[in-house]
Amino acid sequence: MSRDYGLCFWSFGDISVEEKCRIAKEIGVDGVEVQGDLTQDPKELANILSRYALKVLSVTPDNVDISSVDEDTRLKAVQYFLDLLDWASDLGVNRICLHGDVGKTAGCGDLTKDWQLLVESSKTVMEKAEVLNIEVVFEVLNRYENHQIVTCQEALNLIDAVNSPNLFVLLDAYHMNIEEANPIDALKKAGSKLGVYHVADSNRQAVGNGHSNIKDQIKALHEINYNGPIIMEMVAEGPNPFTAVKGEDYLEVLTYYYKTSLEKLKAWDTSKVVR
Questions:
Q1: DSSP class of 62
Q2: Cα 252 vs. chain centroid, distance in angstroms?
Q3: What is the DSSP letter of 56?
Q4: Which entry of 81, 90, 99, 259 is 20 to 30 Å from 68 by CA?
Q5: Farthest CA pair distance, the chain
Q6: End-to-end Cα spacing for the chain
Q7: DSSP label at 104?
Q8: This model's pTM is above 0.90
Q9: 26 belongs to the catalytic site
Q10: Which residues of 17-31 are buried (b: 16+ CB within 10 A; e: fewer)?
Q11: What is residue 102's three-state secondary structure?
């Protein structure tokens, strides 16, 4: 099985795309998850990535609130995703990520209302995604980042409610460490609806720096015949989970995390974790 390995551009912080590409190439990944910055010319971005022979594996969206009870806020958020789909199409990408507003840890107080708004907004996004033949992966976060969709089962419930063949789930080893009773079982439950797998250890650092059983998670990917990308999403050690910049040497630390993790992931993945 051919597998793409990647990393998330946002984790490099506020440096140029060119520099991000240079570091990613040095690390040795096949592709990247780019940031959905609509001010960035997609053709120009495609040219830069092409020079470094990097694929676009997915797109990280801006933080917008698609389930806000404030209609203006919600409609602007939905429009962002509709525009992002066009942007991704111009970039030549066939997959984007969808999730709630990172940092919003409480809804309006009416769970039914929050759910209804999330489903309706997602349906609108998916209607256009189907027209453009773009896959959308809904990222399962954790309770400290968003109040909706924090487990695999909740994501599957959303997929059922939206009822679009182009909607899949994105499971992240770091978030699963917080919310899932058993991350390996969660991956198996996702099964054919798993669209993207993000990986970092329990502390969002390098594989081996925490207590997550990443090796058996990779084994589970084989058991469900997952052939999508493995995308690393790590940050250097330090406070504030919403920023990539953790200190003067954060890029050096992060590069080391990615290099050592990629080596382990490839070894486990290619051997199908038979040992």
A1: P
A2: 23
A3: E
A4: 90
A5: 54
A6: 19
A7: B
A8: yes
A9: no
A10: beebbebbeebebbb
A11: coil
Residue type, 70: D
Reported as a single tens digit per residue, the pLDDT across 78-101 is 999 999 999 999 999 999 999 999
Which residue in the block uniquely carries the two structure tokens 């058991």? 223
Within 8 A by CB and 6+ apart from 87, the residues are 36, 38, 42
Exactly one of 33, 139, 145, 179 is catalytic; name it: 139
State the catalytic residue, choosing from 33, 145, 180, 233: 233
**pLDDT tens for each residue of 152-188:** 999 999 999 999 999 999 999 999 999 999 999 999 9
Give the 3-state secondary structure of residue 194.
Answer: strand
Euclidean distance between CA atoms 146 and 35, whole angstroms: 19
The angle that helices 250-270 and 17-27 make with each other, rounded to 10 degrees, is 40
pLDDT in tens, 186-239: 999 999 999 999 999 999 999 999 999 999 999 999 999 999 999 999 999 888
In the chain, domain spans: 5-270
Does residue 120 carry a catalytic annotation?
Answer: no
DSSP 74-100: HHHHHHHHHHHHHHHHHHT-SEEEE--
- Domain 5-270 superfamily per CATH: Divalent-metal-dependent TIM barrel enzymes (3.20.20.150)
pLDDT of res. 272 = 64
Contact 195, 95 (CB under 8 A): yes
